[in-house]
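Hi, here's the filled form for the chain we discussed.

Project: internal
Contact: R.S.
Residues: 120
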Amino acid sequence: MKIKNQFELTKLIVRASCDLTTSEWGVLIVIADHVSHLNGWEGWPTIEQIAKYSRLSERTVHRSIKSLVQKKMLFVKSGKSGMASHYKILVEALDKDAAYAVHSANQIQYEFEDEENEPF
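And the returned structure, exactly as it came back:
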């Protein structure tokens, strides 16, 4: 899937959120708001900005970023002293996760339709 703008990226994050905690999801949404497709989905919001807009503590933001890196949904290049880190959202990983989520939702719907539904 080719992501063309931030709206499509945000939509992809929402669909891929089945494997994310609420904190990870919030952090990823905030980072998505600070990146651009013009530079390969990279951005450099500060930890303070991410915490403010995600309504999380800075400690929780750090933990969430570490977890997103481990899940291969985010790449982080640490900034020099006094400079913000660079974040790159790994769209390919999100796309695979979103495809799984859509497949799972379709499977649940299919199983639900197979059940006999009796009126209450």
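Let me know if anything looks off before we file it.
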